[in-house]
Amino acid sequence: MTLALVSRNASFESNSIGFMPPVYDSSLALWHFLGADAGPLGKNLAIGGADSQVVGTPALASRYASFNSQQNFLQTSVQQSARFTFLLIARSTQANMVGGNLPVFISNYKSPRIANAAQSSDGVSLLVSTNDGVTPNVTNLNFYDSMYDGASGTSTGGGMGVDVTQFGGIGVFRFIAAASDEKTMSIRVSGTGTATYAHPAGLVPDIGSAPLRIGSAVNAFSGSCDIAMVGIYNRVLTAAEIDKSYVFLQAFYAKRGIVI
């Protein structure tokens, strides 16, 4: 038996070598708690998972980190999967979102297509945007999972992305569960609801070769956002598993000053 002495003011994140969330199996690729009181920035608490690289200087509050796309973000080692679930607690309080000035929560948008490196993939993105691309606001959350026909030589424009839904209130912290496979996309946002979308028949996932970024796209956008935690699974979680994760995270963050 080993006895460990730990300061009463130490956080478990900064002293742990890993973390087993309520839903834990080999599909868990990444788990980050973010913030000045949440251990080293970029530390991957998924057991056996590689840490994320800190790019730039994300600002740290006690229990969340602030990111700017293409400037200050986390570069993960997690590759986009054809089947996945993203869990996040995030918000964007940015007041002006016009053109390319969009906040990005997680993405590999505009990286080389894994099936043909000479082409660009739209990949997958979870980002905040406006209804018409012009009117500034902070109310719309878009989940974008690109599909294409799989044909060699298909242009970037042949890729197809789907905005599943637009939810209000992303200016405050929300629990977000975004999942997709070859047939269906779904997104759930605390306090707003759940939506699903069926991918068009005959298309395949347009997978980008660049690993996923947290707080940034690969070659696009420049918006800012705040993220408290991120979990990435290489499978689609069930509704019951998402419920279980939400209940845990809601209680966990309520004790730490973030209400979801």
Report the helical percentage: under 10%
Total number of beta strands: 18
Specify the number of helices.
2
As for the number of domains, it is 1
CATH fold-level assignment: Jelly Rolls
CATH architectural arrangement: Sandwich
Name the average pLDDT.
85
* Contiguous runs where pLDDT drops below 50 for at least 5 residues: 1-7, 155-165
| CATH structural class | Mainly Beta
Would you tell me the structural class of the helices and strands?
Answer: mainly beta
Describe the structure.
The chain has one domain (28-254): Sandwich (Jelly Rolls). It contains two helices and 18 strands. It has helices spanning 12-15, 239-254, and strands spanning 28-33, 53-55, 59-60, 65-68, 73-75, 84-91, 104-107, 111-113, 116-121, 124-129, 140-145, 147-148, 174-180, 184-189, 193-198, 204-205, 213-214, 224-233. A hairpin with a 3-residue loop joins strand 13 (174-180) and strand 14. It is globular, with a radius of gyration of 18 Å.
Helices and strands, with pairings:
Layout: H1 12-15, E1 28-33, E2 53-55, E3 59-60, E4 65-68, E5 73-75, E6 84-91, E7 104-107, E8 111-113, E9 116-121, E10 124-129, E11 140-145, E12 147-148, E13 174-180, E14 184-189, E15 193-198, E16 204-205, E17 213-214, E18 224-233, H2 239-254
Antiparallel strand pairs: 1-18, 2-5, 3-4, 4-18, 5-17, 6-13, 6-18, 7-10, 7-17, 8-9, 10-11, 12-16, 13-14, 14-15
